[in-house]
Write a structure and sequence with these properties.
Elements (H helix, E strand, L loop, with lengths): L2 H7 L18 E4 L13 E4 L8 E4 L2 E4 L1 H4 L3 H6 L5 H7 L3
Length: 95
């Protein structure tokens, strides 16, 4: 699981998967790695066939999710949940 759904499983309560209008649902991101590419996204899920390094994946509530730093597409929300700090982001920045 990736993106907002992974953040939510990590405990980021301010992320609910809804667009700013409060009604439109964002799809749940799923990283499938080398899975069968005949599987297609729909309105409920967004598929990625990217192979994630084992160091960037963990299990949370029996679901495989990206680690908080990788999932932090909205770092401010992960920071508010005290799951990622600005120092974490600085250390992870390439270069």
């Amino acid at each position: 699981m990736t993106g907002w759904a992974a953040c939510r499983l990590h405990g980021a309560g301010l992320i609910d998967g809804l667009a700013p209008d409060g009604r439109t649902r964002h799809p749940v991101g799923l990283a499938l790695g080398g899975a069968d590419r005949r599987i297609r996204s729909d309105r409920a899920v967004r598929l990625s066939f990217e192979q994630l390094p084992a160091s960037e994946v963990m299990t949370r509530q029996r679901v495989r999710v990206m680690i908080p730093l990788r999932a932090a597409f909205e770092v401010d929300m992960m920071g508010a949940a005290e799951l990622v700090t600005l120092d974490d982001v600085r250390r992870a920045k390439p270069g």
